[in-house]
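Hi F.,

I've been meaning to write this up properly since the lab meeting, where we talked about keeping a consistent format for the predictions we share between groups. The idea is simple: the sequence comes first, exactly as it goes in, then the structure tokens exactly as they come out, then a line or two of notes. No screenshots and no reformatting. I'm using this chain as the first example so we have something concrete to point to.
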Amino acid sequence: MSAQIEIAVTCVHYQQRLCWMLSSLLQQMGECPSILFNVAYLVGDGTPTTRAVCSFFRNEGLNIKETLYTDTEILQYRGLVRNRQLAESDSECMLFADCDMTYHPDFFADLWPKVVKIGDFTQCLSAYRVSLDKAYCRKYFNGLDEHKYPCIIDKAGDLSNWPIYAVWPATGGGYFQMVKVKTMRDKFEGLYIPPSKCNDWSWQRGQMAKSDRKFRERIGGFIPLVTKPQYHLNHERDHEAGGHLTIQR
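Output, unedited:
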């Protein structure tokens, strides 16, 4: 049976934060929808590798799909990766997300009835996020963190005691964009963004996912949802560093 929600992410140098995300999915409570986790990644990348992370969490019971790439060219352009994930999906809904997010234990049990109540929609659904303090996250992951990855992180989606950088309202941002797969195929050629209009910046330019805005414009905007918290594990950025970062984030 196909999943009700397919969470689609791209992971390059974010394998440790990915473990937090997957731990928070393992720790979901209540009556949750069926979830398929789809991660696009470069073969051999990361410490640990994404493949090792997927194997570990699959053994813990998660339904995980691996979308493999053998070179970095396409992975520089998130919109093109999302095109492929959407094209290969047989799920009811696809949730485009970032792999540095974690979800409150009641997030999906609370979310799914709201999605069902909306019914058919041609726009994307959006939700707010709690972005955690940048300095604290850098200090934690670059020094204080004693986890041996891959591993399950206890209470990965219950981070209310971490200092906060900002609480961002639902804006249709690329960290949470839920669409109906059938609607995307029927009305938008099954594409997140037409390849000729993908304006994502490459890593050489500092990497920015500019196709997210074009996606929202193309499908007519977004519908905001009131959800349980989702937490953003903040990190260093290419444009802040003045070049492409290849460190584990």
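Notes:
The chain has eight helices and eleven strands.
The mean pLDDT is 93.

If this format works for you, I'll send the rest the same way.

G.
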